[in-house]
Write a structure and sequence with these properties.
alpha+beta, 3 strands, 104 residues, 4 helices, three-stranded antiparallel β-sheet
Length: 104
């Protein structure tokens, strides 16, 4: 299965990458576009802890970055998530491999 990325392949991580990619929360040359953690959580239907765990794995492999914007209290903090350029390429290659396997 050439092109299948074992980091992205688990369904939760595939959904995260897809949500970020299609929302345009992708690192581009000279710019960054981000998605709020809460919006991503709602989009992929994961709990805070499950999403954090999956993001940590993607972050370890250089596929996403997270940035915490500190509020007046921890409850008011905002975490922003971005699919890196490497993550976007990996996602594109992975979905292309899935399309090839599916016959089109």
């Amino acid at each position: 299965m050439s092109g299948i990325d074992p980091v992205i392949h688990p369904l939760a991580r595939l959904k995260i990458c897809a949500a970020l990619y299609h929302a345009g929360a992708v690192e581009k040359q000279n710019s960054r576009h981000e998605m709020r953690f809460g919006a991503l959580k709602d989009k992929v239907d994961l709990s805070d802890s499950a999403l954090s765990k999956q993001l940590a794995t993607l972050e370890e492999h250089g596929y996403v970055t997270r940035f915490r914007e500190y509020g007046s209290t921890r409850a008011r903090d905002t975490v922003w998530v971005t699919l890196t350029a490497a993550g976007a390429r990996a996602f594109e290659n992975h979905t292309a491999a899935l399309r090839e396997i599916a016959g089109g």
